[in-house]
Amino acid sequence: MRIGAHVDSTDPLGAATARDAETVQFFLTDPQAWKDPAPRDDAEALLASEIDIYIHAPYRINVATLNNRIRIPSRKLLMSHAQGAAAVGAKGLIVHGGHVEKGEDVAIGFDNWRKAFEYAAKSGGFPLPVLIENTAGGDNACARRFDALARLWDAIGEFEPGFCLDTCHAHAGGEDLLDAVDRIKAITGRIDLIHANDSKDGFDSGRDRHDNLGKGMIDPNLVVAVVRAAGAPVVVETPGGVEGQAADIAFLRDRAGR
Ligand SMILES: [Zn+2]
Fold first, then answer.
1. Cα-to-centroid distance, 25 and ligand 1 (Å)
2. How far does the centroid of ligand 1 lie from the alpha carbon of residue 43, in Å?
């Protein structure tokens, strides 16, 4: 089992080594910006590295929204980041499930997801797996509650998207972690990546604040159980810099095994 961390994009390989990480995740641009990624000076090193690379797409992306002025640029940004991720040999591009606004029909959001994959298919499809991540908040989210996830997969399953399970988001989103892996696999058939995070907030709080394993509101044994059951690579997106993340990685490696 390969375990690592979300790190700063400046020197991801150095950051991985400092944490004894076997996987590393980073952003290609400011995650709050609408910006296509630029070619990276370290692309060759990233491509050649033994460390598994994952790229997280910008937070701005919401391909589900009914708002054209967000949805259309979101599709384009998702594709440009997929191309940037492929250029550094990433194993997957992680993107949040997105949402529609209050009072809007989430069914249209699922259909907009389908259109996003159709849009990508027109230009030959995404050059690497797109991993849709469950989110913590919102009443009209496409991938917060697993009943919504099932409807999302009804809409896009034919495009064989991947899935990234975030333990903080599941807990804060109101989904029990105990049997989460089985319930998700029944829907998606796969879990490609685990984001192993504790949550500063309670069950079903709808808040997205990550914490170090064992420091927040989630029983760390439950996170270990999820990691073991999923059998997927792991990225911790936890605070505390090198020290905090190295401790989380070591904890999971010790408890969940290699
Ligand atoms: Zn996450």
1. 10
2. 24
8 A C-beta contact, residue 235 and residue 210:
no
Measured in Å, residue 165 CA sits from the centre of ligand 1 at 7
Neighbours of ion ligand 1 (CB under 5 A): 166, 195, 237
- With the C-alpha atoms ordered 81, 82, 84, 89, is the resulting torsion angle positive or negative? positive
Q: pLDDT by residue (tens digit) across 21-74?
A: 999 999 999 999 999 999 999 999 999 999 999 999 999 999 999 999 999 999
Closest to 85 (Cα-Cα) out of 73, 96, 75, 77: 77
What Cα–Cα distance (Å) separates residue 42 from each residue in 38, 48, 53, 113, 236? 12, 10, 13, 32, 23
**What spacing in Å lies between the alpha carbon of 133 and ligand 1's midpoint?**
7
